[in-house]
Amino acid sequence: MALIIRLTEFYRSTKPVEHPNRQKLLDLICRLAYKSGDFTLSSGQKSTYYINGKLVTLHPFGALWTGQVLLSMLPRDTGAVGGLTLGADPIVSAVSVVSAYENQPIPALIIRKQPKGHGTAAWIEGPELAEGTHVVVLEDVVTTGQSALFAVEKLRNAGYVVTEILTLVDRRQGGAELYAKEGLGFKAVFTIDEIQNYAQASQ
């Protein structure tokens, strides 16, 4: 019952992000990142569409708008942003750079899929922050939610506090349910429904 209540609250609270560049970001995702066809996802699932978020987050304006929109969604107590390499690398970097220009600098952390093979053997790249720092995990596309959950685990093991995950796109294939079960807050800039509707209308 608790899980159902949390999911209901999540979907009720998921409303369009109020940022002037959100629409530009949506248009760029539909033009560059969204493709129809037959695809196999990293989770192993089959899909009739694919979203390559890096085609947007590595685009000069895509990176800027991504950083601006996600920065506007961060909780006030955010001390850093982090994410699992490779998809989150340009996103956390964009948010960090935009935050400096907005005079509210937020460091970026990158979580490795394997520990560093030499030196410190670290799982996390980036500045060393105080224990208890609040870190928000960022993703480009959430499907099952496992990638971001892996990042959460490594950040918590390092002594950071993680209670929130933000993504550019929620495919609505189990990620929200997994995060709710784990007691994590979750917000998406776009759902797959909005992207598909916009892409179809733009044809």
Please give a quick description of this structure.
The chain has helices spanning 2-13, 22-33, 54-57, 60-73, 89-101, 146-157, 175-181, 192-201, and strands at residues 34-40, 46-51, 80-84, 108-111, 124-125, 135-142, 164-170, 185-191. With 203 residues, the protein is of the alpha/beta class. Strand 7, helix 7 (175-181) and strand 8 (185-191) form a beta-alpha-beta unit.
Architecture overview:
With 203 residues, the protein is an alpha/beta fold. It has one domain (2-201): Rossmann fold, CATH 3.40.50. It has 8 helices and 8 strands; from the N terminus they run ααββααβαβββαβαβα. The protein has helices spanning 2-13, 22-33, 54-57, 60-73, 89-101, 146-157, 175-181, 192-201; strands at residues 34-40, 46-51, 80-84, 108-111, 124-125, 135-142, 164-170, 185-191. A 6-stranded mixed β-sheet has the order 5-4-3-6-7-8, sandwiched between helices. β7, α7 and β8 (185-191) form a beta-alpha-beta unit. The model is unreliable at 1-14 (pLDDT under 50).
The ordered H/E elements are HHEEHHEHEEEHEHEH
Number of domains: 1
Q: Proportion of β residues?
A: 15-25%
Low-pLDDT stretches are 1-14
CATH class: Alpha Beta
Structural class: alpha/beta
CATH architecture annotation name: 3-Layer(aba) Sandwich
- Count of helix runs: 8
Cofactor: Mg(2+)
Binding site for orotate: 143, 171
GO molecular function, one term: magnesium ion binding
Family: Belongs to the purine/pyrimidine phosphoribosyltransferase family. PyrE subfamily.
